[in-house]
Amino acid sequence: MNASTMLTCVPETATNTELPVSQTMPLLVAIVNYRTAQLTINCLRSLAAEVMTLPGIQVVVVDNASNDGSVEQIANAIQTEGWGDWVTVKASPINGGFSYGNNTAIQPFLESTNPPPYYLLLNPDTEVRTNALKILVDFMEQHPTVGIAGSGIENEDGTLWPIAFRFPSLWSELDGGLRLGVVTKLLSKWVVAQQMTETAQAVDWLPGASMMIRREVFESIGLMDEQYFLYYEETDFCLQAKRANWPCWYVPQSRIMHISGQSTGVTSKKGEPKRCPQYVFDSRRYYFVKNHGWLYALLTDLAWLTGYILWRCRQVIQQKPDTDPPYLLIDFVKNSVLLSSIRSVFVQMHHSESAG
Fold first, then answer.
1. Which is nearest to 37 in space by CA: 97, 99, 89, 108?
2. What is the mean pLDDT of residues 54-59?
3. Phi and psi at residue 304, in whole multiples of 5°?
4. In the prediction, which pLDDT does 263 show?
């Protein structure tokens, strides 16, 4: 998900079916479900044809403690449809977030005696198009220095959503708050959302809706950071991969359909905007502090706040509609690096006094 957009809470088919890698299990697909059982079943149904093009593929659905009957519904569908030889469902005792759910699926395979060479993160609210997975595997086989590859994404109505992303920065935060066309043009090299073409190309990071990862990437940088509950986790993972010399590529010949925001409603385009959950601000703050340090994170807060306050003034003067989530400015300030650090100091002092 576009990190700046979050704060405004925004082919030819291959005919060769020969297995492109020597392992008996070329690919593990990890799907994390949270109260979207029917969408997960639809996703599995779309994957059924891929099993024919990639023999040995395995799919693990991790249910993040939905407690709504999801596990039973998905298990029943697996049995009814005859998917049991390539799909398993695993019930997590807690909802640990996106990274936690994917790690739960991936880690046992990485630790096995013959781990698969590729791992696909696939959202439950997706449906894969013909040969989408095989195209990604073939691309990775043909480009052994590429660490991560992601599909082109279609909207629910079939229109293309040709977006990949640059890493968030001080300048992208200023642009995300200000929303002024002339400034966006001046800062075009730093704007997070990047318009893509029909040609495969290197990018900074891709949404985790369909992201294939080479096994050696995990061996180089470890699993996904479970400190993130939701949002920024794939941004962070791609950044760590890039720092370890594993580039990320957008491969539009592989296509999936993605219905955004079905588990959380945060990025859903239907209805009135919802208040941003706490974890959005927590993830943003953690990303900047972890990767760029406390001072830089503080400067990104100031950049966004400056831009956003100017935007609100322009909004009033020009009588532009308000499409922002409720309490966005208040929530942002409350969760800023400075105020969060002050709160942490007081909490630690209170704990020390209590212990004494």
1. 89
2. 94
3. -65, -45
4. 52
Sequential DSSP letters for 64-100: -S--SSHHHHHHHHHHHHT-TTTEEEEE-SS---HHH
Q: Which of 193, 45, 52, 57 is nearest to 124 (CA)?
A: 45
Q: What is the pLDDT of residues 159-189, one digit of tens each?
A: 999 999 999 999 999 999 999 999 999 999 9
Residue 121's SS3 state is strand
Best CATH choice for the domain 3-258 from the list 2.170.120.20, 3.20.20.70, 2.60.40.10, 3.90.550.60: 3.90.550.60
The 10s digit of each residue's pLDDT in 99-123 is 999 999 999 999 999 999 999 999 9
Report which DSSP code applies to 246: -
DSSP letter at 275 equals P
How many angstroms separate the CA atoms of 253 and 131, rounded? 9
The reported pTM is 0.89
- Stated as kind and residue range, the H or E segment containing 212 is strand 210-214
Q: What whole-number distance in Å separates Cα of residue 292 and Cα of residue 168?
A: 11
